[in-house]
Amino acid sequence: MRHFGHLAPEARSELFHREPQEFTADSPARMLAVALGATLYSPATRPQLADDVVKQAARGVVSMVLCLEDSIDDRDVVAGEANLVRQFADLATRPEAALPLLFVRVRTPAQITDLVTRLGGTVELLSGFVLPKFTEETGVPFLEAMAHAEAASGQRLFAMPVLESPQLLHLESRVETLYGISRTVDKYRERVLALRLGVTDFCSSYGLRRAPAMTAYDVQIVASVIADVVNVLGRADGSGFTVTGPVWEYFRHHERMFKPQLRRSPFTPEAEDLRDTLIERDMDGLLREIELDRANGLQGKTCIHPTHVPVVHALSVVTHEEFCDAADILDEDRSGGGVMRSAYTNKMNEVKPHRAWAERTMRRAEVFGVAQEDIGFVELLAASLPQS
Last residue of some domain: 317, 334, 352? Predict the structure, then answer.
């Protein structure tokens, strides 16, 4: 797998100062956690699920979640499990197909051991499980079930807990719930790939739903939870985990109350149609939320529509300016500290305070690449969109 690997080599050469590196399902967890990028969710009940997986991988998707939980009706769980087993068997007959990292979102710990047994040899296509409504009390049985399933199958399996329970949202129980989650994921650190935020469930607890002109950070009660999750679980001192951005729910045009959030200046006259398309599909809000995700310590994003994936990935590429700043900060000759003017002569780079940012930026550069000096997200996005 390689981000932007669906583009022709000559196109990547024009776009990237340093191209994204290849990785596999067996790559180190630290690399995979960043490489998740836009994780596309799909109901496990889809009849042509194997075809969908192959098609989306060919379009640049590198991680998918096949969902047996909230995205399907309670009455369809048994049929969804049977369909998953069939679809994995189908995928196993296509050795030539490039597949993304595949995860299954389950409802109960028992589903984990049962599904791994039923998958048999095709479990080698599975990267792990997404664990819903994760707390210390609910999470331990899930993680123990994963340990048993991994031992029985011999397949490395990662967990992606979803932080979405009311106990985490409610002020009176938030701190203890966060510390409980922290104790649990720290105990099973080698198994936990990333933590995912269930913002839709947060909003549900208060009867809220953000409009397409609003980001998760405009809903103050949600923003406060995100801040506390990052505070406890996303620290850069070696104790933290990758925390992924919340889902963006919209993919078709809605009547607008506010002006579009995309300035015209990044778009050349040739790219005006792209700007219009993004605004028409309410993706200007998505672009703003992705930027706010990164500013608030989140990486990657949950996606429920394929059109969101290239947007997330285009904004995940490290700019040439970011790369130059990070390289200067991490220069061994400056390991003693100090302050310097940036290579772009527009900011101060302070070696010690900015070091953690620089290290995180270089990890992102490894899997998403570094753009050429004159390439921005507009060119990356235009090159990534499926050609009609």
Answer: 317
Q: Report whether 35 contacts 367 (CB < 8 A).
A: yes
Q: Residue 365 domain-assigned? A: yes
**DSSP class of residue 274?**
H
Domain region containing 346? 319-388
What is the rounded distance in angstroms from the CA atom of residue 222 to the CA atom of residue 295? 16
Residue with tokens 């340990």: 147
The three-class DSSP label of residue 245 is strand
- For residue 346, with 0-12 CB atoms within 10 Å meaning exposed, 13-18 middle and 19 or more buried, which class applies? exposed
Using one digit for the tens of pLDDT, what is the confidence trace for 237-281?
999 999 999 998 887 655 544 555 555 556 555 556 666 556 555
pLDDT tens string 75-121: 999 999 999 999 999 999 998 889 999 999 999 999 999 999 999 99
Nearest residue to 33 (alpha-carbon basis) of 190, 264, 205, 203: 190
What is the spatial distance between Cα 278 and Cα 67, in angstroms, rounded to a whole number?
A: 27
Q: Which amino acid is at 352?
A: K
DSSP per residue, 279-330: HHTTHHHHHHHHHHHHHTT--SEEESSGGGHHHHHHTTSBPHHHHHHHHHHT
Q: Which amino acid is at 16?
A: F
Task: Indicate which CATH number applies to the domain containing 121.
Answer: 3.20.20.60
Label residues 301-317 b or e (16+ Cβ within 10 Å = b): bbbbbbbbbbbbbbbbb
Cα distances from 216 to residues 49, 278, 304, in angstroms, run: 30, 19, 16
Going from the C-alpha of 215 to that of each of 197, 220, 223, 231, 256, the distances in angstroms are 14, 10, 9, 20, 15
CA distance 234 to 242: 6
Interval 150-201: pLDDT, tens: 999 999 999 999 999 999 999 999 999 999 999 999 999 999 999 999 998 8
Domain count along the chain: 2
Q: What pLDDT is stored for residue 256 in this prediction?
A: 47
My answer on whether 120 and 231 are in the same domain is yes
